[in-house]
Design goal:
The complex is a heterodimer of chains A (342) and B (120).
Chain A lengths: L6 E5 L3 H12 L3 E5 L14 E2 L4 E2 H11 L5 E4 L4 E7 L2 E6 L4 E4 L1 E4 L3 E3 L16 E3 H10 L12 E8 L15 H15 L4 E6 L9 H10 L4 E4 L4 E4 L5 E7 L4 E7 L1 E6 L1 E3 L1 H10 L26 E3 L9 H20 L1
Parallel strand pairs in A: 1-2, 1-9, 2-5, 9-20, 11-18, 12-13, 12-18, 13-14
Antiparallel strand pairs in A: 3-4, 6-7, 7-8, 10-19, 15-16, 16-17
Chain B lengths: L27 H9 L11 H5 L1 H5 L4 H10 L2 H10 L5 H5 L6 H16 L4
The chains are: A alpha/beta (342), B mainly alpha (120).
Chain lengths: 342, 120
């Protein structure tokens, strides 16, 4: 009986891949979930709490772990899907390490890579000790301890929006969507852990696009005294007191502003994942001008790949939050099932 | 604009309207700049140029604000503004929209000169 089940390979074990695998297994399909890391979970593994309600990331991780704990799902880790090819009998899927699998359908859920902050050299990431990324700040939240590199408690922290997003200089004109609200969330968490530490967000536009995001922004001002300065930071340096000094224009005051910081947090954006790029190139998937995977139709075919039997799910198509990723993965499952039954 | 000294002691004075009267302003300079440096249109007013500007550390020069003057057709403040830039080009290095900022200033200055000669 089990041999008769249709087989779907899901490339990528992040939020989208886990949700898609779970939904397919539940509907009676045999699923192979291929994850490049040690464990499924994707970027969510690094996160401490989630916007907009600051719920523990563990709650969503646990939901997804339960989702893929199903007898129809086989999880393969430390492996990538390198190539997918359609032929009349189905799909041939090449995995890293040289093995080849047959599948009736494939869901590509290769996700995103965080922008490598070293590419914005003027911000000094990898040069100055107290310049960190938003993901590293989550690590500090996980350890329950926010400190400068020399161990001192910070008096002032700046969060720099749009690092690697909306920036032609690093070839990313797109907006990563989630960094604004992440900054607001992290600003609140810093203020709660260190009530004497001032927090400043440096933004170009506050893009509070999702439900309860604007409310969180309001709360950050009303309850937590988070400060917002409208301007793009142009550069950072270190002074004789080993504090960071940033240059920015306070565009609302219309004057240049300099400020000392103990820690500068770079809100790194989303880029098409390297593993996904490799797979796309080998399999002939289209790419958008933002380098994410191009879908059949932006409005009503947003999971279609252009290759028969292959569907896209999650942030391999564009930056999105967890809510939208889960919905997108479920939509990819609906398209896959329609194809398999058709 | 009335200077402090000329304002009467009751605190009332006749001053020019603070309104940007968009239909009364002159956007010839904007047309001139946009035609010769189309990347001018891409500015989203982040202020990165002003933050890094050498002239702006010591004078009131503000490239982001200057762009807005050009867009709105506010010629008066523009006349002096275009003379303050030293064309060092640091702003070019930071602009996230890839605006050829230095050329915007050069072309705007040219437009102001032509305006003075009734050549615009």
């Amino acid at each position: 009986m089990k041999g008769a089940l249709k087989h779907v390979i899901v490339a990528g074990g992040g939020v989208a891949g886990m949700e898609a695998a779970g939904a397919l297994a539940e509907m009676g399909y045999r699923v192979t979930l291929v994850e490049k890391g040690e464990d499924p979970g994707g970027h969510l593994l690094q996160w401490h709490a989630l916007f907009p309600d600051r719920r523990p990331a563990d709650e969503v991780r646990n939901y997804l772990r339960k989702r893929i704990n199903h007898h129809n799902i086989n999880v393969i880790t430390r492996t990538t899907v390198d190539r997918v090819k359609h032929h009349p009998g189905g799909l041939t899927v090449n995995l890293s390490g040289g093995s080849e699998e047959k599948a009736d359908a494939v869901i590509v859920a290769t996700g995103f890579d965080l922008f490598d902050a070293r590419r914005k050299e003027e911000y000094g990431y990898g040069i100055y000790d107290n310049v960190i990324t938003s993901a590293e700040l989550e690590g500090m939240f996980n350890r329950g301890h926010i400190a400068r590199a020399d161990g001192k408690v910070p008096d002032r922290i700046g969060l720099i929006h749009c690092v690697g997003s909306r920036d032609e200089k690093v070839n990313n004109n797109h907006c990563s969507k989630v960094c604004c609200v992440t900054a607001v969330k992290q600003a609140i968490e810093i203020r709660k852990m260190l009530p004497s530490c001032e927090v400043f967000c440096f933004y170009m536009d506050m893009r509070m696009y999702g439900p309860y995001y604007e409310e969180l922004y309001r709360e950050s001002q009303e309850v937590h005294n988070v400060n917002f300065i409208r301007g793009k930071v142009s550069e950072a340096s270190v002074n004789i007191n080993n504090r960071l000094v940033i240059k920015v224009e306070d565009t609302l005051a219309g004057r240049p502003l300099r400020m000392e910081l103990d820690i500068m947090v770079l809100m790194v954006g989303m880029e098409m994942a390297a593993a996904g790029s490799k797979l796309a190139e080998a399999s002939g998937f289209g790419r958008g001008i933002n380098r994410f995977l191009e879908t059949g139709d932006h409005h009503y075919g947003n999971n279609l790949s252009g290759v028969k039997g292959v569907f896209f799910a999650g942030t391999c198509t564009a930056p999105m939050n967890i809510t939208d990723t889960v919905s997108h993965a479920r939509a990819a499952v609906a398209e896959t099932v329609r194809y398999l039954k058709g | 604009m009335m200077s402090e000294g000329r304002a009467n002691k009751f605190g009332f004075a006749i001053s020019r309207s603070r309104l940007i009267d968009y239909d009364a302003t002159d956007r010839k300079v904007r047309e001139y700049v946009t035609l010769r440096e189309p990347s001018f249109r891409l500015c989203f007013a982040c202020g990165g140029c002003t933050a890094t500007c050498t002239a702006g550390q010591h004078t009131s020069f503000n490239l982001r604000r200057m762009n807005t003057y050009i867009r709105r057709g506010e010629i008066e403040p523009l006349r002096e503004e275009v003379t303050r830039c030293m064309l060092c080009g640091k702003c070019l290095l930071v602009c996230p929209r890839g605006v050829n900022t230095r050329n915007v200033v050069a072309v705007a200055a040219e437009a102001i000169r032509k305006l003075g000669r009734n050549e615009l």
